[in-house]
Design a protein that fits this description.
Chains A, B: This is Transcription regulator. Chains A, B: GO terms for molecular function: DNA-binding transcription factor activity; transcription cis-regulatory region binding. Chains A, B: Belongs to the LysR transcriptional regulatory family. Chains A, B: Pfam families: HTH_1, LysR_substrate. Two copies of one chain form a homodimer. Chain A is of the alpha/beta class. Chain A folds into three domains: about 5-85, Arc Repressor Mutant, subunit A (Orthogonal Bundle); about 90-160 and about 260-285, D-Maltodextrin-Binding Protein, domain 2 (3-Layer(aba) Sandwich); about 160-260, D-Maltodextrin-Binding Protein, domain 2 (3-Layer(aba) Sandwich). Chain A has nine helices and eleven strands. Chain A has helices at about 5-15, 20-25, 30-45, 60-90, 100-110, 130-135, 195-205, 215-225, 270-285; strands at about 50, 55-60, 95, 115-120, 140-145, 150-165, 185-190, 210-215, 230-235, 250-255, 260-270. In chain A, helix 1 packs across helix 2 (about 20-25), helix 1 packs across helix 3 (about 30-45) and helix 2 packs across helix 3 (about 30-45). The longest helix of chain A has about 30 residues, at about 60-90. The first copy, chain A, is elongated. Chains A and B meet through helix 1 and helix 4 of A and helix 1 and helix 4 of B. Chain A binds a DNA duplex through helix 3.
Chain lengths: ~290, ~290
DNA sequence: AACAATTACGGAATCCGTAAAAATT
DNA sequence: AATTTTTACGGATTCCGTAATTGTT
């Protein structure tokens, strides 16, 4: 059985090219690496190096072994982190999402639940959702699409509906709803982290300009002291920081189909019983409008 | 970094259920396993076991860790074997196939080549072909279908064409070729190991009976002292053992499309230069008929 | 002269087995 | 009484660093 530290030395050597630099990188002495690579060759029963008095290089087999060792080391590392993640997931039910809106509601729920609930502050691309669940980095992922695999299942929660907040004297505000087309060419204040909504507004509103703000505090300040329109959804009300009573804008829902997203909760089938009360709470507090 | 022997002990324990049996299975003493599992918990920083004075059981995390460890150990094992296989493949070009016919020709080639060529005696299902190549267990796989992946490529070699050897006095022998339909209900002597041909004849010949023989020697003997028809192909001539001059049967090619198979040579793109002369030899010796 | 790899030697850490203890079935 | 786990102790293996050697650039 090959010892991991030998694989580590091999991988390091394949990157540095000399035993001296390898030793330096691993914080050991040269003789240690020399002996290590000799032992690795001996354990495998294979020649990995071409040796000259002052120079040592990988053979073709050695390069292949280093390539395989790199992957194996990554999996080795993943083992520890996954075990620890699983252990953590047993005590804390972690919720993440691909959109900010559902996370706001989730945070609300978390405060009124006796269970240990952790709601992440950042969100991930939807193509990482499956990985987050199977590696137990999250127990619940809120997404705009269903995820169906042999070990995963999804449950529909409700819809997130986009609205735009316009200055009350703008002519587009003289109707109960608007369309993306009617927002053509306008400039919007947008928070940097709005997940999948970003591609929606960029795709649907022609020739629009988006002033992305990284800091939520800066976003609030600029909205207060300017007339730029900004977006919100039916889930924005759960944002504890967005309470701006002195807003001169009016909220106008967007009629387009693309302005609505169905939200699903995805989780491991093995966790079905654990997430059940959380799903019930999310559905119970989902706004009707 | 988790030591492999600790993972091995965990995997063994998850199967045996007690430390005593685990120790027995691994040929070590109980205290060794006790300390090992304590160290594993310590290294991972996670509780894997529920301990009672006379009983130790896996926690949920422990079961999950054992599951992950099982897979990791398999990959760990695969590392060594793959490095050794790669090393071996550098000196010996190994050819395998999904059909016996192309292998016969390959053996012929191997004798007239200066290069170190190894031709396997058994053949594998076609769905294992990709794995054989990527794990370097074979450098060349002869199959009836093309294999196309980012790292693999296939080259057409020729066709293998099925024929049936009938007693010269049978009425079906009164024509230059026959069809599968005309063989309806007959009984055939067939070698057990004929690869993908087996499903062809079973599917195409209605109500036929197949007398499968495991031993080639028994097959030859029965063909000699009986009148049962048997199959051969345009590649059978390369079989050094099948030279039976005193055969009372006549060879009749089968007309159906299903009685012909295109044969491709698949290999890693990285091996293209190495296999080039072998492919040329295979194509050069491929029979025209 | 500087650098890279290897070998030799001694110390330190670790891992194992034997023996003994504690507790359960 | 037999089985299972755990701890204690001593020995043996192994792994590492320092020092010295060899050979190259």
């Amino acid at each position: 059985m090959i010892e991991p530290y030998l694989l580590e030395e091999l991988v390091a050597f394949s990157r540095t090219g000399t035993l001296a630099k390898t030793a330096q990188q691993l914080h050991v002495t040269q003789p240690t690496v020399t002996r290590g690579m000799q032992k690795l060759e001996d354990d495998l029963g294979v020649q990995l190096f071409d040796r000259q008095p002052n120079r040592i290089t990988l053979t073709a087999t050695g390069r292949h072994a280093a390539e395989l060792a790199t992957r194996l080391m990554a999996q080795h590392q993943a083992f520890s982190t996954q075990v620890q993640a699983f252990d953590h997931a047993q005590r804390v039910l972690t919720i993440t999402a691909t959109l900010p809106g559902p996370l706001l509601l989730a945070r609300q729920i978390a405060q009124h639940t006796d269970q240990a609930l952790s709601v992440t502050t950042t969100f991930s691309p939807i193509d990482q959702a499956t990985d987050l669940l199977t590696t137990h980095q999250a127990t619940l992922v809120l997404t705009q699409r269903e995820l169906q695999t042999p070990t995963l299942e999804s449950r529909y929660l409700g819809r997130e509906k986009l609205a735009v907040n316009l200055d009350q004297f703008m002519y587009q505000a003289n109707q109960t709803t608007v369309t993306f087309a009617e927002l053509r060419g306008m400039s919007f204040l947008v928070l940097q982290d709005i997940g999948s909504w970003r591609e929606v507004i960029q795709r649907e509103i022609p020739q629009a300009k988006f002033l992305y703000q990284t800091q939520p505090s800066a976003f609030r300040e600029i909205t207060t002291y300017s007339d730029f329109p900004y977006f919100s959804t039916n889930l924005s009300r759960f944002d504890p920081h967005v309470a701006t009573p002195t807003d001169h804008r009016v909220r106008r829902p967007i009629r387009d189909a693309a302005a609505q997203m169905p939200i699903y909760a995805s989780y491991l089938k093995a966790d079905r019983q654990r997430v059940k009360p959380v799903l019930a709470a999310l559905r119970a507090h989902w706004p009707d409008d």
